[in-house]
User: What shape does this take?
Amino acid sequence: MRKFINSFRTRIIYLFIQSLLIAAVVTFAIYKSLQYYYHHHVFYGDTYMKYRFWMREVGDIYVFLALYIPFSILIFYLLTRTYTKYFNEISTGIPLP
Assistant: This one.
């Protein structure tokens, strides 16, 4: 069981889940901050209301899903940066035919 927990695949899956959760927290924070901003600081007729109406037409879920997916990919890339260093070091040591 200990080999399974410490295996490379399990670590990558753990980093993937971690990146999804971090991206979800970041996206939710953006959602809540924009919700607060539009509720307290934007009045009808402002130029920012055009963006809010566009988001309402497209759908809030689709707009924030479009933010969530790149965030999760970027965070996963940043979390696995240490592993790519190891793979580059290994691949330079392997002779090409």
About this structure: The longest helix spans residues 8-40. The chain has a mean pLDDT of 84. The radius of gyration is 21 Å.
